[in-house]
Write a structure and sequence with these properties.
alpha+beta; three-stranded antiparallel β-sheet; elongated
Length: 102
């Protein structure tokens, strides 16, 4: 028998089934990038950044030097089986290196 209680249960079930579909069917969903890379410091004071990559699938990668009290330094965006170093250095000191992908 279909009564008011069953109608509420049917509506809740329909909503619960539709929400995951709407979340996964979004055209703006992010694509996956796989990057087999490592970043390292360069320069005599270890205040630059370099990157070396093996496989890079579905995007690009770059290295960023996290500078203290100054603008960060970056490498070029690179693809698979390549490497790059920054053309400049941190003004004061570098906290570390960061791998960025897009």
């Amino acid at each position: 028998m279909f009564n008011r209680y069953n109608a509420k249960r049917a509506a809740a079930l329909t909503t619960a089934l539709a929400i995951p579909f709407l979340l996964t069917a979004s055209p703006a969903a992010a694509s996956t990038v796989y990057a087999d890379c490592f970043t390292y410091t360069t320069g005599s004071n270890n205040d630059g950044v370099g990157i070396s990559c093996g496989d890079v699938v579905g995007g690009e990668a770059r290295g960023r030097g996290d500078c203290v009290a100054a603008p960060d330094v970056y490498t070029d965006w690179i693809g698979a089986w390549s490497g790059s170093t920054s053309g400049s250095y941190c003004w004061f000191n570098e906290r570390g290196t960061i791998l960025e992908i897009r």
